[in-house]
Design brief:
Number of strands: 2
Order of helices and strands: EHEH
Distance between the termini: 31 Å
Strand content: 15-25%
Oligomer: single chain
Number of domains: 1
Structural class: alpha+beta
Largest sheet: 2 strands, parallel
Length: 50
């Protein structure tokens, strides 16, 4: 059974730190589905069109 993990990149969770960690965990071959929701302006644009 795969686990869903939400990855929220932002100012405090800097993309330059988050992406390598996700890649490292991914390389372990664990059954993880990474979910990357829209954040910031992209999230606002999405919520305005729904």
């Amino acid at each position: 059974m795969s686990k869903n993990v939400v990855v929220i990149e932002g100012e405090d969770a800097a993309p330059e730190a988050v992406r390598p960690v996700v890649a490292l965990i991914d390389s372990l071959g664990l059954d993880i589905e990474w979910l990357h929701p829209p954040v910031g302006d992209a999230a606002l644009a999405t919520s305005l069109t729904d």
